[in-house]
Design goal:
The protein is of the alpha+beta class. It has nine helices and five strands; from the N terminus they run H-H-H-E-H-E-E-H-E-H-H-E-H-H.
């Protein structure tokens, strides 16, 4: 009997300990479930509060909120400078010497037209003692034909005595302007939306002023972009033209040909005699009445003097 009491006692103790452990686990599970429920409820409350704050913020106009769109960085726009076509403004300056100014101008105008360009300015001046002309023209040439035009001028009949070509890369500025104008467009749309929802006159005036400033900035950015686009699409070339004729004296004019010199002197003598006879005839014919009176008076005086001399004898 005592042998059976000990095993029964041990088994009872084991069952009691097992029951206690089960109760502790149930209590822990219940506590955990209750904690999760509380956390869920708190999260729901926080979400409701955040939603409420967001709705109230959207319902109220704030210029800083509208400007946040313009301040957001756009990594794609920043890196696009490495992928788009480069925007380079080319300028050329040439100084050429020509033998005939008018022919050179016509030739340059034809070359500009052949490359798809056009002349925007032309000036000429001359009338110096040596009779030489000079001037300048400014042309806009498509960028893809810029180098070709320079080469055509160099290989032509004109002597290029001075040449300078420069280029300015404005790609980064152009991309930055693109990014800025997109941001300004977003701000403009938000301001227009705020204007539609505005109920107070004070808010409406404030939004209208901010909208005017944003639209003015958009116009300035657009104008700058158009300027850079035009300058990069069409290169500017200025050509200064100087006429340089060398007058070589004629050998015959130096008197080295004796026969030609003799003929020239004979002709000059004949011309002089003819001119003298012609002048004398004109003088006599033109003054004939006066000459006749003088001749008659002289004849009368001669006869009177002659009679006096005879009486004395």
């Amino acid at each position: 009997m005592r042998k059976w009491l000990m095993p029964i006692f041990i088994i009872s103790i084991i069952f009691i300990l097992g029951a206690c452990a089960g109760n502790d686990e149930s209590a822990d599970d219940a506590g955990s479930a209750e904690g999760e429920a509380m956390n869920t409820e708190e999260s729901s409350r926080e979400m409701e509060m955040a939603t409420s704050d967001s709705d109230s913020a959207d319902a109220e106009y704030d210029q800083d909120t509208a400007n946040e769109a313009a301040e957001q960085p756009n990594q794609v726009e920043t890196n696009s400078a490495n992928t788009i076509d480069r925007k380079i403004i080319y300028n050329g300056n040439l100084r050429v010497e020509v033998k005939n100014y008018n022919e050179a101008i016509n030739e340059l105008e034809s070359q500009v037209e052949d490359t798809g360009g056009f002349i925007v300015e032309s000036s000429s001046y001359g009338g110096s003692e040596d009779g030489l002309q000079e001037g300048s023209i400014t042309a806009r040439i498509p960028q893809e034909n810029f180098q070709q035009f320079i080469k055509v001028v160099e290989d032509g009949n004109m002597k290029v005595v001075e040449k300078s070509v420069s280029g300015q890369d404005v790609t980064e500025e152009f991309v930055d302007l693109q990014s800025r104008i997109k941001s300004k467009r977003v701000v403009e749309e938000r301001l227009l939306s705020f204007m539609e929802d505005a109920e107070k006159t004070e808010d409406l005036l404030k939004i209208s002023n901010d909208l005017s400033k944003v639209q003015e900035e958009i116009e300035q950015i657009t104008g700058r972009m158009n300027y850079l686009q035009n300058k990069s699409d069409l290169a500017t070339v200025t050509i200064h033209i100087y006429e340089n004729r060398v007058n070589i004296p004629n050998i015959n004019e130096e008197g080295l040909n004796t026969w030609e010199k003799t003929k020239q002197q004979f002709n000059e003598s004949i011309n002089f005699l003819l001119s003298a006879v012609s002048g004398l005839f004109v003088f006599i014919a033109g003054n004939l009445p006066v000459l006749l009176i003088i001749a008659a008076a002289g004849l009368v005086a001669f006869r009177i003097v002659r009679k006096k001399n005879k009486k004395k004898e």
